[in-house]
């Protein structure tokens, strides 16, 4: 049995006050979400402790959107995995396409982040996905395979068993263009195959989330696919009703 997870990536949105109000609305509606679905939220760093205090003892899990590639010291402006674990956060998103693109996060950086997150006891949600030009050139499988091989298949089986993967085609993120359920299922099955080549049966236990303009109107069809175990939700996670409706779509 794989865990079903719907995780909200708030990105750089909301003030602390707005974030606390959003998590309060989620708390009020969480009972509508099936018991076997994990609902997680990843607010900005500044909000984490206030949101934690609000959702503590609830079914809502807390995550962060990023962590530093260093453990501590003179890295002005950075937030370490151990600091996130001390909030406490449960999840951390690593390798989001916005981090890869705008902050030049490449495999050596992502490998350090993964190692530090795992060492701190966090569950990494590791993102992979091709750009539009790579899909149009028919290179999407090659791109996804190399992102997995650089960072994930090099992990020990014990570390790998803790990781959640998110397939996020870059052309679908924040564009309103969702991958069709067939395209998403095809990519998820491919990801599971690559993982199984290195980790055998463990790959059958890995939760693989879809991300990219997922909303309540398309979530049910996406989540019904055999290898789609939930979603990483950007824009639609900023509205409590919509985010809850997505989590109810299982
Ligand atoms: C994301 O950035 O992880 C994402 C899936 O964004 P959106 O849902 O807004 O496309």
What structural keywords apply?
11 helices; 250 residues; alpha/beta; binds phosphoenolpyruvate; 15% strand; globular; 8-stranded parallel sheet
Concise summary:
The chain is α/β, with parallel strands linked by helices and 250 residues long. Helix content is 41%, strand content 15%.
Q: Order of strands across the widest beta sheet?
A: 7-6-5-4-3-2-1-8
Q: What is the average per-residue confidence, as pLDDT, rounded to a whole number?
A: 97
- Strand fraction equals 15-25%
Shape: globular
Radius of gyration using CA atoms only:
17 Å
How many strands, what sense, and barrel or not for the largest sheet? 8 strands, parallel
Output the structural class: alpha/beta
Helix content bin: 40-55%
Query: What's the end-to-end separation, in Å?
Result: 15 Å
H-E string: EHEHEHEHHEHHHEHEHEH
Number of beta-strand segments: 8
Number of helices: 11
Which cofactors or ions or other ligands sit in this model? phosphoenolpyruvate
In the predicted model, the low-confidence regions spanning at least 5 consecutive residues are none
Describe the protein's architecture and organization:
Strands 7-6-5-4-3-2-1-8 form an eight-stranded parallel beta sheet. The longest helix has 19 residues, at 181-199. It is globular. Helices cover 41% and strands 15% of the residues. The mean pLDDT is 97. It is an alpha/beta fold and 250 residues long. Strand 2 (37-42), helix 2 (48-55) and strand 3 (60-64) form a beta-alpha-beta unit. The relative contact order is 0.16. It contains eleven helices and eight strands. Bound molecules: phosphoenolpyruvate (PEP).
């Amino acid at each position: 049995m794989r865990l079903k997870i719907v995780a909200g990536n708030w990105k750089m949105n909301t003030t602390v006050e707005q974030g606390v109000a959003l998590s309060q609305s989620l708390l009020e509606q969480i009972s509508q979400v099936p018991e076997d679905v994990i609902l997680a939220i990843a607010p900005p760093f500044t909000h984490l402790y206030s949101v934690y205090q609000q959702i503590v003892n609830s079914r809502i899990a807390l995550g962060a959107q990023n962590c530093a590639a260093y453990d501590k010291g003179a890295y002005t402006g950075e937030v370490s995995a151990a600091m996130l674990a001390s909030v406490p956060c449960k999840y951390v998103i690593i390798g989001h396409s916005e981090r890869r693109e705008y902050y030049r996060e490449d495999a050596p950086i992502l490998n350090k982040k993964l190692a530090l997150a795992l060492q701190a006891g966090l569950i990494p949600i590791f993102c992979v996905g091709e750009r539009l030009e790579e899909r149009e050139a028919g290179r999407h499988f090659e791109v996804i395979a190399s992102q997995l091989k650089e960072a994930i298949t090099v992990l020990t089986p014990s570390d790998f068993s803790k990781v959640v993967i998110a397939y996020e085609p870059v052309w679908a993120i924040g564009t309103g263009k969702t991958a069709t359920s067939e395209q998403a299922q095809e990519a998820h099955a491919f990801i599971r195959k690559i993982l199984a080549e290195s980790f055998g049966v463990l790959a059958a236990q890995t939760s693989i989330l879809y991300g990219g303009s997922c909303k309540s109107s398309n979530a049910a069809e996406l989540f019904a696919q055999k290898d789609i175990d939930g979603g990483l939700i950007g824009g639609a996670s900023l509205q409590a009703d919509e985010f809850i409706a997505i989590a109810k779509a299982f």
